[in-house]
Amino acid sequence: MIEPDDTSAARAAYDTVAVDYDELLRDELAGKPHDRAQLAAFAELVQADGNGSVADIGCGPGRITAHLHDLGLQVFGIDLSPEMIAVARQAHPSLQFLEGTMEALDLADDTLGGIVAWYSIIHTPPERLPLVFAEFARVLVAGGYLLLAFQAGDEPRHLAHAYGHDIDLMAYRLPPDRIVDLLAAAGLAVQSQLVRAPDQSEKTPQAFLLARKR
């Protein structure tokens, strides 16, 4: 399978910024009570069902993976960037981190009780998101949960500089209602939807969708 150019570009960009990304965002969640509430609700639902482990897909340096672990989940991280994985393993040596892409997960069908994709669908062109959501549905058990976070909007952006480095990367703000429809088409029914106003470090509203595999 030939890797899409945007996947290669995302890997190169996150390899470049990995160390500084970790340093800048390591404690960001502490100042975001709405975001923590979404993760806490997800963790409680997964634990109540007892359907198995959780994958933090697009885990970066592992900060959300570690937070989910602290909430009591059996969780591991997956990311396409080897440098991000290296940072995650160094920062959280007791947790498991694997290299992989969200469009071709190296996981068996019906194996996960939950998936978190925390701002990790934003570099996938919207026309390929149905493939991503179908892959998520494939690896979730029936009744398993998916939590998505992304910037709300409806336009692409080119990132030429981020986290102190020159990069070449596209990012996509996404309309929540459209994502709800795409999830439904993949067999993932949205249970809750939150769009919060941007905080002082953000430029756009932030969207959170919690879905469940039928």
TrEMBL record:
SUPFAM superfamilies: S-adenosyl-L-methionine-dependent methyltransferases. One of its GO terms (molecular function) is methyltransferase activity. Keywords: Methyltransferase, Transferase. It comes from the Bacteria. Residues 54-144 form the Methyltransferase domain. GO terms for biological process: methylation. InterPro entries: Methyltransf_25 (IPR041698), Methyltransf_Superfamily (IPR050508), SAM-dependent_MTases_sf (IPR029063). This is Class I SAM-dependent methyltransferase.
